[in-house]
Design goal:
Radius of gyration: 20 Å
CATH class of the largest domain: Alpha Beta
Structural class: alpha/beta
Number of domains: 2
Largest sheet: 7 strands, parallel
CATH superfamily of the largest domain: Glycogen Phosphorylase B
CATH topology of the largest domain: Rossmann fold
Distance between the termini: 13 Å
Bound molecules: uridine-diphosphate-N-acetylglucosamine, uridine-5'-diphosphate
Number of helices: 17
């Protein structure tokens, strides 16, 4: 079974790592790795291939940058000949980024079955490009692999036939579990001068927060205020780094002793920094899930989440995007409470194996 596995962004590499490794262990599977090039800086791409033991991609589409529409269009155009040449039995896509939708759509138009890993999540906020990508890729997928129960309900509500939907758990958590030992050996705290439980770890890259000058300024001022009470470390996503520069906002944070702006961290260092943080503030999707498993309090700087199980588990709180609300939520946290890792159903490190079993079962039946 030839499975064309398509990745393009940082969270894609992390999710696909578990699947790719699992596929390599099965003699009847041949994974072919395609990197669209949506993320391309060494610290947004190469570092993950190295740390997650992913091989050099078989095919690189080199589509860096551009608007959502333009990026999606270029991936569509460049992946079609790859599909025709490689003639895979299946295309596997993960998550909700432009590379996910474009590869899924091209496969579907070429008559190749599509497996979508992390299907069914819905924020119900159609201003997010990811929400459009999720809805569309789920519509055209043949295998929909769901991470949490809300996904099953969402797909049912949208009329997706039950037999396409499989509740399998979370491949991002598979990768986290298999890299915890390496993370325990990271010296990132020493390198950044941080103490265990003595800092807030922050990430910020949603366009709603980073692309609008007033919104970004308001959040940076809030983080600066928090930094005066607890050191803040912000590994800066390139989108946000660029916007801070364009909007002239660097002076707000650059000379603040409690505020550290650093380059994006590699996976192992980031896992270590997350685990030892007193609190994480983020607008990331995946980090809401990782902090759940690690039992680290997470304040999500958004008004909604497509991952409600992280709220039900109690580690994650939606705090909105207004600076004053973010600071208030931070001050309201009770750090004396015991931190307890939570495990949503099937987040047990075995999701990739379940997915591969289902695919092999389905294709075995077709062949026989
Ligand atoms: C994308 C995903 C988002 C995901 C995020 C993960 C979409 C619509 N968005 O957002 O869902 O949460 O990846 O991090 O697919 N850039 C660089 N170097 C890089 C990558 C990006 O400089 O290696 C800059 C470029 O100016 C680029 C901009 O960041 O135009 C935005 O990158 P893009 O991939 O379009 O969106 P993200 O914000 O990264
Ligand atoms: N991550 C990382 N280094 C960083 C920030 C995040 O390795 O500096 C990892 C994080 O552990 C998680 C993933 O990147 O596994 C989340 O990606 P991101 O927040 O960019 O995307 P999203 O999940 O919002 O789509």
């Amino acid at each position: 079974m030839r499975a064309l596995c398509v990745v393009g962004t940082r969270p894609n590499f992390i999710k696909m790592a578990a699947l790719y490794r699992g596929m390599c262990e099965r003699p009847s599977m041949k994974p072919i790795l395609v990197h669209t090039g949506q993320h391309y800086d060494p610290n947004m791409s190469d570092v993950f291939f190295a740390e997650l033991d992913l091989p050099r991609p078989d095919i690189y589409l080199d589509v860096s940058g551009g608007s959502n529409t333009n990026q999606t269009a270029r991936i569509l155009e460049r992946i079609e000949p790859v599909l025709l040449e490689a003639a895979p039995d299946l295309v596997v896509v993960v998550g909700d980024v432009n590379s996910t939708l474009a590869a899924g759509l091209a496969a579907s138009q070429c008559g190749v079955p599509v497996a979508h890993v992390e299907a069914g999540l819905r924020s119900r906020d159609r201003t997010m490009p990811e929400e459009i990508n999720r809805i569309l890729v789920d519509r055209i997928s043949d295998f929909l692999f769901v991470t949490e129960r809300s996904g099953i309900e969402n797909l049912k509500d949208e009329g997706i036939p039950d037999e396409r939907v499989h509740f399998v758990g979370n491949v991002m958590i598979d990768t986290l579990m298999s890299h915890q030992d390496k993370a325990a050996g990271s010296d990132v705290l020493e390198r950044l001068g941080l103490e265990s439980r003595g800092y807030a770890l922050v990430t910020l890259h949603r366009p709603a927060n980073s692309d609008r000058q007033e919104a970004l300024k308001d959040i940076l001022l809030a983080l600066r205020e928090i930094g005066r009470e607890l050191p803040v470390v912000l590994p800066i996503h390139p989108r946000t780094r660029n916007r801070i520069g364009e909007f002239g906002l660097l002076s707000l944070v650059e000379d603040e002793p409690g505020f550290r702006l650093v380059e994006p961290l590699g996976y192992i260092d980031f896992l270590a920094a997350m685990k030892e943080a007193r609190v994480v503030l983020t607008d990331s999707g995946g980090i809401q899930e990782e902090t759940t498993i690690l039992g680290v309090p997470c304040l999500t700087m958004r008004n909604n989440t497509e991952r409600p199980v992280t709220i039900e588990c109690g580690t994650n709180t939606l705090v909105g995007t207004r600076g004053a609300d973010i600071v208030r939520a931070f001050r309201a946290l009770d750090f004396s409470e015991n931190r307890a890792p939570q495990r949503p159903p099937l987040w047990d490190g075995q999701a990739a194996g379940r997915i591969i079993d289902i695919l092999l079962g389905a294709f075995g039946e077709k062949i026989s």
